Predict the structure.
Amino acid sequence: MKQIAFPALLAVLAVNTEARAVGSLADVAVIDRDSGATLATHWYRGEYWVAGSAGARYGIAIRNGLGERVLAVAAVDGINIVSGETAGWDQTGYVFNPGQRYEITGWRKSDAEVTAFAFTPSPDSYAARTGRPANVGVIGVALFRERSAPPPIAMLRDSAAANRAGAASREAAAAALPSAKLGTAHGERESSLVGHTEFVRQQSQPDEIIRIRYDSLDHLIAMGIVTRPRPTAPIPDPFPG
């Protein structure tokens, strides 16, 4: 199975030092692409949450925190963002060089294009429209360390073995979660260039799983995850003209 590597000119971006990123082996943050802001993460009952707005485009920024390559198998609403399959650990993903940061902006359609991630009411989400609504409202990144140094070949296929142990229990747990008010749409096509590389996983199960749930701000407030901000009185202006 092929894994995705980034062209150097596209992938070598500024390191994200945002304190709201999540993760140990890698930092993962959700970015509002319309404003450029990193969405604040809220820790609640063992899970991270972010608040999204319907119609807003977003990206998943990942920075490799190690001095070695890592494979990030990423999923949105229970769907692999590269292949469009119902997500599993053994599937294809993005390979990050040491210290590398990259912002994933959509569902991959080819080596040159993605369709943008955008928050949308859950019935209009890509997952719901393809008959897979059970896991709407969650972003996941499974991280794998590399078994050995990569070979000097540009395009090969992944030789990692599949391991789906525990998949049934994970699906049952996901189904028991409260339904989300927001999902992720299959948005407009955008240019996004990648290449391919071989990556042999050090082990069949992820070294780390990063999970970020999302929903509307109103729903997060209703669940007690976020406190509604108090309105502030305007400051008088001595020279309003």
User: Anything to note?
Assistant: The chain has four helices and 15 strands.
